Sequence to fold (760 residues):
Amino acid sequence: MYKILGKRLLANNIYLMDIEAPRVARSCEPGQFVILKMDEKGERIPLTICDYDKEKGSVTIVFQTLGESTKEMARYEEGQYFADFVGPLGRPSEMVHEDIEELKNKKIMFIAGGVGTAPVYPQVKWLHERGIKADVIVGSKSKELLILEEEMKSVAGNVYVATDDGSYGFKGLVTDLLRDLVENQGKHYDLVVAIGPMIMMKFVTILTKELGINTVVSLNPIMVDGTGMCGACRVTVGGEVKFACVDGPEFDGHLVNFDEAMRRQTMYKSQEGRKILKKEEGDTHHHGGCGCGGDK
Amino acid sequence: MDRMKRIPISEQEPKVRASNFEEVCLGYTPEEAMAEASRCLNCKKPMCVTECPVTIGIPEFIQHVKNGEFEAAAKTIAKSSALPAVCGRVCPQEVQCEGKCILGIKGEAVAIGKLERFVADWSRENNIDLSEVAPSKGVKVAVIGSGPAGLTCAGDLAKMGYNVTIFEALHEPGGVLVYGIPEFRLPKDTVVKHEVENVKKLGVNIETNVIVGRTVTIDQLFEEEGFEAVFIGSGAGLPNFMGIPGENANGVFSANEFLTRNNLMKAFKEGYSTPIRLGEKVAVVGGGNVAMDAARTALRLGSESHIVYRRSEAELPARLEEVHHAKEEGVIFDTLTNPIEILQDERGWVNGMKCIKMQLGEPDASGRRKPVEIPGSEFIMDVDTVIMSLGTSPNPLIASTTKGLEVNKRRCIIAEEDTGLTSRENVYAGGDAVTGAATVILAMGAGKKAAKAIDEFLSDRYHC
Fold:
């Protein structure tokens, strides 16, 4: 059993939790993730690692309530326990294995979309601890949904914020902001690391291809075990099938087949939606009796 | 009574069982078991024992059953096997113990598997304590993986007095016994959980949610946690795909994913959160036991279920009993058929499978006749879900994070056959991690041999 040491609401529907998991904390490196299972009947949910404290033996996760499971997760309070918490999963970011002096000569830009800000944080922090200042673009729908801004500022070089509605910072998409920085403000980057919704990562890679910047993305497909035994998370990278949980989650963004990855993400979408409906409105929608064609 | 004929065993009716996940075979009653046991000739040189990978004293336990001494029978089996309720159910006895039974020459072999299962079930229902353990030696051994190889190795070492910890990556111990083999062949809550509990009763500590290679490395186990030897029983869990166009369409699963969702995550049960999604017509590609399990599971979830296999029925690698059961339940067999492309609709969902007809050519090096495509015989199978059951390979994670651990070109760990010793000192391996996907009982045999070798090695070193 894994104890919830702390819980914080970061923004509407976005929660942060500190989980007591000494083995996971001890081995964590930037770029990795965990899988959590709430109780006996729960599903295995892949989650972002936002931070870790090797001495305290804790791992910080951030999640947004989307489906039934994450909504249930948000109801857990400090002092309660999750049944299972396994990790760290996936390969650490490439930079962990790179020469620090070489890294210092690189201009790195992280682009974080929404809750993707959380997995960007440990990477920027890791660089900061080694004397490297990376720039960060944080994209958000609006000011209210912006998370971890102060934390990010304390470890990053320049932090730029873009909101869709212009309620804070730059008005527009992260791609508009990146283009503005590179084309109008004379900024130069050797590497872009983009983490967020698939659609955002896709458009970032289209832009960076045009701008000629190497780009790493962190994919978030459907997963079951997270250890490489099922292939639910398979993605096509450079024409080859890869399992995101063991070969990734980070890949060369310019080689990823995003359209396929986005399509595969929707595989259980209507089932997920029906479950929420059933919970919130009662047994109204099963067997496709409404004529909507069920989940086809 | 005709000595040449087996006492029949009761099973659920095919029509009934095709729509539930209850166990198909209902097992012997005590009277039936005693009657079946009385057929055994109690041979002086029992061939059945030589064919059992863990050398159970078969005639001895069967004589006990014959006399109604079920507890003594259970204790006889416990000397050699920690998982009799599992093995009695899933071993391919027809090619092992029962394959060499003298009665099988003129009639039907003694139902050794069913008798073993009876004894194990009886001892569970009657709470027989089988945990005899030697005094503690105070020496720590780590076992990686809680499948049949790991459980057996751990159980044997614990009996010898070692302090054993099993590290398991999933949230539930049992390996393929919990995620792979379905409920209707191997009930989880009663049978598997109980056998795992029996191993724990021997003093074995099981740590779930630990992925060796990620959460902790083998070197850390030696250097930081004080283990003196390691046994790797991590299996062969990495699914193979065909590499044909359309294989990443929505609605194509590996058998591992499909069975894990259903067996481990209990997607078929009300109240469990993990979803499973099947269409009306399901094609399972492959002909092994896993393919049978997947096809029979799909049927129980309400789909029309096909086995698509490139050779003929005679070459099906699955156990005959499983093939019979699948047919009785209504699984359709499309043999001499090979998929060449998976078709999808405009939204990326499977809406057909392009196949080609095959014929059997000359025998290849292994003696099996090679399937050859019949030119121009392409056709489209009307299916909306495809489950790939083409075998599995060992996961490279442990080998890639352990210096000096050699693997062969099939990514299997190289280990001595008699001892399981790998290229690393103090590190032993066995089961599917070494052989590639094989059987439960072979993995148990390997776990047993390794336990013996580890004991010899540590006894030498510590004079204990």
User: Anything to note?
Assistant: The domain at 2-89 of chain A is CATH 2.40.30.10 (Elongation Factor Tu (Ef-tu); domain 3). Residues 283-296 of chain A have pLDDT under 50 and may be disordered.
